[in-house]
Amino acid sequence: MSQTKPLSRIWIFTAFVVMFQLLVVQAMAVSGSLHKCCHEHADEPGHVCAVTMVLQGGYDTVAPDLVPVKISAQAPDVPVLAPHTGDIEPSHLVGGVLAHAPPRGP
Description:
By secondary structure, this protein is mostly helical. Helix content is 36%, strand content 0%.
């Protein structure tokens, strides 16, 4: 049988501790008397803990500050260049079609 490494034992232990804490928080959220038994001041309106966060709908109760963004249509600050009126020759035809041909063999 293979033995687990010491580091993986630590990760397994940490996972069990976190799962146990989540189960205890859920049990305290279900049972108000258990919550009052663990916290003496659980009845106070300003009491905030993991149990009250779960009861209010989640672990993240702080809403971010929303700042409205005003978008206005403005003309660009850079001048718009007029299109070139001269004849534009494609780059592959500059110097003639044979200028870019492969060299002639023997």
